[in-house]
Amino acid sequence: MATEKPLVLLVDDDEDFLFQQRVQLQDAGFEVITAQGQGQAEKILADRRPDVAVVDVMMENPDAGFVLCHHLRKNAPSIPVILVTAVNSESGIDFDMATEEDRAWIKADVLLSKPIRFEQLRGEIERLLAVKG
């Protein structure tokens, strides 16, 4: 009897990032579905419920990732969210989830700064799935 693989939704407008992470996550035993922006992700979420979502901040709009996180929290609060961003390195804006106020508006479970190591992403996904499960 086959065990169902956890489903990871990867959302990013960087095709290279999507490809690289998808291949590595599939090799690590996950099922992966990708979206190249907030709009495409919301269409996918209308039909599928991933076990975890990995969402970039800046996509078709500078705040698309934040908007998608709010959408997920409102419509599917049980889906853990990892927010990935290059905002810190590209803009000099430094934000994190250290305070309750930050966590309240960011609406993600984890915030990772790009570039991210695959081992780091995989570890966070596995940790969130263990907590959820």
Any idea of the CATH topology? Rossmann fold
User: Would you state the CATH class?
Assistant: Alpha Beta
Largest sheet strand order: 2-1-3-4-5
User: What is the N-to-C succession of helices and strands?
Assistant: EHEHEHEHHEH
Q: Summarize model confidence as the mean pLDDT.
A: 87
Supply Rg. Answer: 14 Å
Structural class: alpha/beta
Shape designation: globular
CATH architectural type: 3-Layer(aba) Sandwich
Task: Output the number of helix runs.
Answer: 6
Question: Superfamily at the CATH H level?
Answer: Response regulator
The count of domains is: 1
The description of the largest β-sheet is: 5 strands, parallel
Which residues form runs of ≥5 with pLDDT under 50?
Answer: none
Helix residue percentage: 40-55%
Q: Would you count the extended β strands for me?
A: 5
Question: Approximately how much beta-strand content do the residues carry?
Answer: 15-25%
